Amino acid sequence: MSAKKQHRTGRRHPLVGVALLVLGLFVTGGAYAATSAGIASAQEDNVPSATLIEDGERLFLANCASCHGTNGEGTEAGPSLIGVGALSVEFQVGTGRMPMAASGPQAEKKPVQFTQPQIDAMGAWVATLAPGPGLPDPRYYAADGDTAKGAELFRINCAMCHNVAGAGGALTEGKWAPAVVGVDPIHVYAAMVTGPQNMPVFSDMNLSPEEKNDIITYIEYVENNPSVGGFSLGSIGPVAEGLFVWIIGLGVLIAITIWLTARAH
User: Is 141 in contact with 188 (CB distance < 8 Å)?
Assistant: First the structure.
């Protein structure tokens, strides 16, 4: 009898489970609300103002709409900008490639025609057309990553077009891979994310933001360190080196031979 009574005393009350469930819901809901509020606050800090977007629309209509359409929908003269994001605007306009001076196989880098606030305004308006790549956190293009890892990633993913020294190279149909040395780090990052012209897109699944920073770190290293092999001859590979040997080297040997022959007589 005593054991049976003790057994009954050790049982939990049926309402204990309900109380624990309600408590768990309150804790989970509170944590979710706090997290959502933090995210919303961070997003509000990055949301461009209505005035900035209006300024961007005016600039776009005055300078870009003739090719890309009044709503960024694209025309026969220019592609659609719906979904390209503010980062694409930063790259194309921030490097002077847009507006294009003339139609051609590829937009050339040239002096920038807009101020940075104007570029930001146009990017803010284009970003309202549809979701697209936004401006990255500065730490992802700070060039403070792993240089050795960046060199390996660059050789695997970039060197076949841009040359292992980042000097660029020729492509087909009159196109080319531009030099990446001397380029603003944010534009290197933007090119990897947006894939302008013939360049493939390197999403975060292909190259994480940290790996992109490693590549930028390697490019900065190449830019700031002279060629250990001497005169780089443009760093465009064996063609320039062979041409130098044939024209300069062979020419010097012929000149020496003629001089020695003349002295012998």
Answer: yes
